[in-house]
Each structure stands twice: as C-alpha cells, then as structure tokens.
Design a protein that fits this description.
Helix content: over 70%
CATH architecture of the largest domain: Up-down Bundle
CATH topology of the largest domain: Growth Hormone, Chain: A
CATH superfamily of the largest domain: MFS general substrate transporter like domains
Number of strands: 0
Shape: globular
Length: 413
C-alpha cells in the first residue's frame, strides 16, 4: 500500500477518494440489510405461521443487540483496527441472512435478527474512524455527507430490490442473495485496499498515541443529542402517514406524497449539509438553527390543517433541513473525540440512535392508540426544541487534530 505521508499529491487524493467510495458502499450495505427482513414480513408471516407481533419481536431483538454492542464495538475497533472489524461485520450480517434462507424457522429468524444487530453496530464506529483519519480536513464535512447519503440510498432502494428478488427467486432465494452482498462487498474492500484507522493514529516516531478517556461530558451529551435526533424524526417517518390520515383528513395518496417529500429532501439536504459543514466551525449552531426552523414547521403542522400542496412543501423543507444537520452532527462528534478514539466516540454516541429506535415505536404507538394523532407532530416539536438546546450546549470550537491526514491532501468530491 502507498505510504500516505510520502506519496505524491495526486496519489493521496486518489487514495482518499477510493477510501471514501469503499466506505460509502459499506454504509449502503448496512442500511440495505436493515430493511431486508421488514420487506419480507408478508412472506415470513405465511411461511412461519406467526403474527406481526412475533415478527416485530425480531426487530426488537435487532435494536437491542445493536444498542448494547455499539459502544463495545467502538472500543474493539480502536483496539484491533476499524478495518478488520468492518470486514467481519459485513460478513456476519451477510451470513446471517444466508443461513436464514437455508434454514427458515422462527428460531433462525431471531438468531438472524440478533446477528444483524451485531453486524449493524460496526458501521458507525468503523466507518467514521476510517474517514476521520484519512479524509482531507478541509473536506471532512462533504466526506461525511456522502457517506450518510449512501446509507439513505441503501434504505431507499431496499424495497424495490427485495420485491424484484422475491419475484425472480422466491423469498428464500431473496434472503440468500441479499445476504451474499455483505461478503462480496467485504471482498471488494479488501481488493480496494482500504486503510486502517489505527495506522493513522500513531505518532510519527512509531510509538502508539497516548490513550485518553473517551467518556467525557461532551460525548455523553452528544449521545443524548443523537437520541433526541432519532426521536424527533422517528414519529414523522414511521407514524406520519397514519397520523395525517386519522387526524387531519389527509388522503392516503397525499400523506404518502408528503412523507416522500420529507424523506427525499432529507437525502438532498445531507449532500448540501456537507458543503456547509466544511465552511463553518460552528456545527452546533448550524444544527440548532435548522432544527429550530423545523420545530416551527412541525408546530404549524401539528396545530393546523394545511392544504395538500402546502403540507407537502412544508414537509419537504423540514426534511431538507433535517438532512443538512447530519454532517454537522458528525463533525460535532469528531471534534469531541480524543485523538485515536474516533471509533469509541462514534460507537458511544450512536447508541443514542439505537435507544431512540427502541423507544420511539412504543411512544408514538401509544400516542396513536390514545387517538392523539396531532401529538405525533407535537411530540416531535418537543424533541426538536430539546435538540436545539443540546446542540448549542455541545457546540465547541474544533481542536487541532494532529492525527489527521497531512496538509495538502485535497481529494475532489
């Protein structure tokens, strides 16, 4: 592998772009695998003879395992190398689906969900650790945004891919092919030669960088920040359609269009947010401003009945601003992480997302059971306001990072 410290400028840039592309593909796989089982629920329900409660329990197992292992995986990535852990995660997630396709039973489904949750816990700690140490500092925000966009894309195309695979190969074949994507991408990353984050976290004299505690007030606050981000978006994404239909008299078609605008604009906002994150050091203020506007938009939706066109536009603006926040969110974590501890830092704060995934179905499901659909948006407003406050508290000027790439490394994104 080319030595990044002595290679010519164009070689360094090519290496960084290759690393970004490879890590983004891995993130695509992570989001694609998250949606494989839900997309096959109708098939699994018939084949296994179970109800949706039993199928939903599999997703609960997935969320719990991912939540409990996210932080330990971050420590493991910093200890033995993010590259190795990422490759193992891709293979474990893929093999879990392959084995389910080869031996379909409810027990196998639960085991598969647990292994998928374990595999899912590797992506944020490992991906961000590698990107944080091998991307150009001046373009770090854009690198994070492309990585996040790739994940959004994986979730967006999962339904059509799984539907096509079921049509061509049946449900079992679809599971096996979807699982095979993991090991194939792991092999691709080996061929590409992605670097290891740990190799960039050493002193120039070859001695290991001094270890610092990653459990800091800033990291703990960011974990809660991530949890609030997840809670504020989960109600809209998962219960927005039923809330609009039952509480506002919106048709199924109009509600779907509004949610599509929200999700589609989020993906576009992520890319725009990458450029913004590279042009400011006040990432907390960016997040606070975007979510402050979002809170106002959601308050209007919660308290009034808007025409379909206006509702769609409002949801689109909210989605775009929510996407803009993502790169700034990631930069906040990177700036708060001690040198050589990016894997642990992202592992800990990403646990907040996992907890929101466990709590949000219970909370917003209870709200809908109480026939209070307006509070799907009202509760999101409350979480957004809390997110604004935490964003301002966690906003810190970035420290000088000696462990990053050498100056002049400028890949074109």
């Amino acid at each position: 592998m080319v030595d990044v410290l002595t290679a010519p400028q164009h070689v360094k840039a090519d290496s960084s772009l290759r690393t970004l592309a490879a890590i983004s593909v891995a993130h695509w796989v992570s989001h694609f695998h998250i949606f494989v089982l839900p997309m096959l629920f109708p098939y699994l329900k018939v084949q296994l003879g179970v109800g949706y409660i039993e199928l939903g329990f599999a997703l609960t197992v997935f969320g719990l395992v991912s939540a409990l292992t996210q932080a330990p995986i971050g420590y493991l990535a910093d200890h033995i190398g993010a590259r190795k852990v990422l490759l193992i995660g891709l293979c474990v997630g893929g093999l879990a689906l392959i084995l389910l396709g080869m031996n379909l039973s409810y027990t196998s489904l639960i085991v598969c969900a647990a292994l998928l949750g374990l595999a899912n816990s590797v992506y944020h700690p490992c991906d961000y650790a590698i990107l944080s140490t091998h991307m150009d500092e001046a373009r770090m925000g854009r690198a994070f945004s492309i990585h996040t966009f790739a994940g959004f894309l994986g979730g967006a195309v999962a339904p059509i891919i799984m539907a096509s695979l079921v049509t061509m190969l049946s449900g079992l074949g679809a599971l096996i092919v979807a699982g095979a994507v993991g090991p194939v991408v792991a092999l691709l990353l080996i061929v590409v030669g992605i670097p290891d984050a740990s190799s960039a976290d050493r002193k120039t004299d070859g001695a290991p960088a001094p270890q610092q505690s990653v459990i800091t007030p800033a990291i703990i606050m960011l974990m809660f920040f991530f949890m609030l981000l997840g809670l504020s978006n989960a109600g809209i994404s998962n219960f927005g359609i039923v809330a609009l239909m039952s509480g506002y008299g919106v048709t199924f078609s109009a509600a779907n269009i509004a949610l599509t605008a929200f999700l589609g604009a989020s993906a576009a906002g992520v890319l725009a947010g990458g450029y913004l994150a590279d042009r400011t050091t006040r990432h907390g203020q960016v997040a606070a401003a975007c979510f402050g506007i979002n809170a106002l938009i959601m308050l209007v939706i919660a308290t009034t009945t808007l025409p379909s066109v206006v509702l769609t536009a409002a949801m689109g603006i909210a989605g775009f601003l929510g996407g803009v926040i993502a790169p700034s969110r990631d930069m906040l974590v990177r700036n708060a992480a001690p040198p050589g501890a990016a894997g642990r830092a992202f592992g800990i704060v990403s646990t907040g997302f996992n907890f929101s995934g466990i709590l949000s179905p219970l909370l917003f499901g209870w709200i809908m059971d109480q026939q209070m659909p307006h509070w799907v948006f009202g509760a999101s407003v409350a979480f957004m306001v809390l997110t604004v406050l935490l964003a301002l508290i966690t906003d810190r000027k970035p420290k000088t990072r000696s462990e990053g790439p050498v100056a002049g490394l400028e890949p074109r994104f």
